[in-house]
Amino acid sequence: MKVCIYGAGAIGGWIGVRLAKAGHDVSVVARGATLDAIGENGLQLIEAGETHTVQVSASDHPSDIGVQDLVVIAVKAPAMASVADGIAPLVGPGTRILTAMNGVPWWFCAGLGGTFATHRLASVDPDGAITAALPASQVIGCVVHASCLLAAPGVVQHHQGNRLIVGNASAQPASSGAGPGSGSGASDDAATDVQALLAEAGFAAERSDFIQRDVWYKLWGNMTMNPISAITGATTDRILNDDLVRAFVTSVMLEAKEIGARMGIPIDQQPSDRHATTLKLGAMETSMLQDVKARRAVELDALVGAVRELGAMSGVPTPFTDALMGLARLQARTLGLYPA
């Protein structure tokens, strides 16, 4: 299969090396030091004490690569406008687009059914350019449960986790009356084929009948830990061991829990259950804190802004989420990491 990785960062590089080692024709859209490193040394993955190197085609011009069977988008949400602007040469009518990203994606509402299904999330796709370039009908969502980092340009270090959950972005849940997998977009067979492709490459890949549920559940923890760590510089254990901050986190999560319930995505757990799970991971430094330290743009809109927008649609007041967004946004703007 012809596979292009758009965004050869930690997760994109990890997936790319695995797929290349499984025998697929892998190419990469990359820029700057990453493009130079891949050209000179190949794409490298350090995993379980071994270094795996694969030679892949790489370019900063998608037109050099051409139409693909599968495009894996593995970038931070702030980069999506640029991706949408340049991805057209990679995408044909039969191309599947796998999105391995954090937060609420542009296609999230497509599979919810009802009045949500036709809503474009202005928080993550303000002018509709992403939806126009990457329609949900061709998208397969992917929720990543793994930890990787870039040891150097073109060199990925895998730390832990191997789980990828994939599902048709526009499949509607049974509660919508249409039944799982019955959305108007990418067929069940396409999502199942991608799940099999990933499993053959060594991932613990699972097929979801309602990928929005998996996105929302992961977001339920990320939407608080990320911005609070970015504001305070604290690791997740310190955040949750402060009783006042933990109470604030709980309040934000309860708002998101109610929004999810009204969208048809109930969460059976309580915030305290998720806190206990997070504490078991120890002193974790979130990706948003790493971005702030490196002075990279932060994913506030996908992690928090979209929740506020969905809350307004659902009729759920979000005073705690609003406060979190305001504080994190102010800090990011002060540092030049979020648009004024």
Can you describe what's shown?
By secondary structure, the protein is α/β, with parallel strands linked by helices. It folds into two domains: 2-209, 3-Layer(aba) Sandwich (Rossmann fold); 214-334, N-(1-d-carboxylethyl)-l-norvaline Dehydrogenase, domain 2, CATH 1.10.1040.10. 42% of the residues lie in helices and 19% in strands. The chain is built from twelve helices and ten strands. Strands 1, 2, 3, 4, 5, 6, 7, 8, 9 and 10 form a ten-stranded mixed sheet that branches. Strand 9 (155-168), helix 5 and strand 10 (204-207) form a beta-alpha-beta unit. Helix 6 (211-232) crosses helix 10. Mean pLDDT is 94; it is low at 176-186.
Q: Please estimate the helix content.
A: 40-55%
In terms of quaternary structure, what is this?
single chain
Major sheet attributes: 10 strands, mixed
Number of domains: 2
Give the N-to-C terminal Cα separation: 42 Å
Q: Compute the average pLDDT.
A: 94
Helix and strand composition category? alpha/beta
The value of Rg in angstroms is 19 Å
Query: What is the chain-wise order of helices and strands?
Result: EHEHEEEEHEHEEHEHHHHHHH
Strand tally is 10
Number of helices, counting only DSSP H or I runs of 4 residues or more: 12
Q: Regarding CATH, which class of the largest domain? A: Alpha Beta
Report strand %: 15-25%
Specify the CATH homologous superfamily of the largest domain.
NAD(P)-binding Rossmann-like Domain
How would you describe this structure in keywords?
2 domains, Rossmann fold, 340 residues, 19% strand, single chain, 10-stranded mixed β-sheet, N-(1-d-carboxylethyl)-l-norvaline Dehydrogenase, domain 2
